[in-house]
Amino acid sequence: MQPQTVRAIVTGGVSGLGLAVARRLVADGGRVALFDVNDDKAAAAVDTLGADHARYFRTDVTDEAQVAANVAAASEFLGGLNVLVNCAGILGAGRVLGKEAPMPLANFRNTVLVNLVGSFNVAKAAADAMQGQSPGEDGERGVIVNTASVAAFEGQIGQAAYSASKGGVVGMTLPMARELSRFGIRVMTVAPGIFWTPMVDGMSEAVQQSLSASIPFPSRLGQPDEYADTVAFIVRNRYLNGETIRLDGAVRLAPK
After folding, report:
1. What's the Cα-to-Cα distance from 140 to each of 35, 67, 144, 179, rounded to whole Å?
2. Which residues does the chain have with pLDDT short of 50?
3. Is residue 189 within 8 Å of 215, Cβ to Cβ?
């Protein structure tokens, strides 16, 4: 997207993969709006990035009216909008047939609502804002990067809801890219493997080593900065469009 300045919304932006993306975009000279519901971590994230370069917007990605209003406010703060990175998501683990009873439908519905419907909700609001931007090279007005998971392809036992939600993210990538092409808006998805996240930090060392050993090469967990590097590459390379990139060290998830 160079030489245009990156003006980005990052959902799930105050921690984990989202914060890594925000750091990278700001380091490259961009500005970011952080959409999240974690007020406790928001101030520290903005302090890290610098108040001139980042602002926090408390946002429930499943709330259509709130997202539309916050996208408009973020665009005003950023001076336009040409990048969206959707990192907000939940695990939603649980067996279809649990020990006590079948999975409550609310659990499945909420996982799909946050991971899939939430991603679409922010993407369509961002695309609406992007279509009014002045075009850059090749007529590009913006790029949307969604986050799926390798579980979209090899979901494990207990991941029916999570895999369905992430499979939906993969499935909407190409049709959205095709539709938005006439506005000069690209749509890409990254499917991370097993990455260092706050959840992994809470696991025992033995479990962490077991996870690392399951990855062919490099035999370690992914680093958030490696995810951020991938997003930065997608933003720069305008010929990437309508595709899902696996970022996983060649791992293929076992049944459990």
Report:
1. 24, 23, 12, 14
2. 1-2
3. no
